[in-house]
């Protein structure tokens, strides 16, 4: 279960404050590429900007945790006014611990939102928090991610085979 999704959402905007509250989640750790925006993009889709504002108004704490370099992550996070960690080495869970302490929440009150099973989902599982997976927002531009996507297919299928739904 380290890689198979627990929850799958059509898009990050389908995660609601009400759903989070039902699960006791008060803080989200967010991936960037193909989660909040297209791969390597600095542009935030309007609907995601609205979603971030909805989360803020609901009191959900937000931190970006990305494997990207500082030159990729910092400008994007600063434009959104979000705390961030870069070169986080997901699936290693250490950056999730740093984010949790910064947001001052308990582990059980936090979830990871991302699109990659071998990075985001595995990091969440290793840290012991829910992984809220989203369908990627666009094509992957990195050869490494393209390769991992091929390996991920069987794990996505396991989720649906056991009755999992896209929320």
Description:
The chain is an alpha/beta fold and 167 residues long. Helices cover 42% and strands 14% of the residues. It has helices at 17-23, 46-57, 70-80, 94-103, 117-127, 143-161, and strands at residues 7-9, 27-30, 61-65, 83-85, 110-114, 131-134. The chain starts with 6 loop residues before the first strand and ends in a 6-residue tail after the last helix. This is YqeG family HAD IIIA-type phosphatase.
Helix content: 40-55%
Distance between the termini: 19 Å
Mean pLDDT: 94
Structural class: alpha/beta
| DSSP, total strands | 6
Unreliable residue runs: none
- General shape: globular
Strands across the major sheet, in which order? 1-6-5-2-3-4
Protein name: YqeG family HAD IIIA-type phosphatase
Pfam families: Hydrolase
Organism: Faecalibacterium hominis
InterPro entries: HAD-like_sf, HAD-SF_hydro_IIIA, HAD_sf, PGPP1/Gep4
Observed structural traits:
HAD_sf, globular, 42% helix, HAD-SF_hydro_IIIA
Brief account:
Pfam families: Hydrolase (PF00702). The protein is an alpha/beta fold and 167 residues long.
């Amino acid at each position: 279960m380290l890689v198979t999704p627990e929850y799958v959402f059509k898009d990050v905007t389908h995660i609601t404050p009400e759903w989070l509250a039902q699960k006791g989640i008060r803080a989200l750790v967010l991936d960037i590429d193909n989660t909040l925006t297209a791969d390597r993009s600095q542009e935030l889709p309007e609907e995601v900007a609205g979603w971030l504002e909805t989360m803020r108004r609901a009191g959900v704490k937000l931190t970006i945790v990305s494997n990207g370099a500082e030159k990729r992550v910092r400008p994007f996070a600063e434009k959104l006014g979000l705390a961030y960690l870069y070169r986080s080495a997901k699936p290693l869970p250490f950056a999730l611990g740093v984010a949790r302490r910064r947001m001052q929440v308990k582990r059980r009150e936090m979830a990871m939102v991302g699109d990659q099973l071998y990075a985001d989902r595995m990091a969440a599982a290793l840290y012991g928090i829910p992984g809220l997976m989203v369908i990627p927002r666009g094509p992957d531009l990195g050869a490494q991610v393209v390769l991992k996507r091929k390996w991920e297919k069987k794990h996505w299928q396991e989720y649906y085979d056991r009755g999992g739904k896209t929320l």
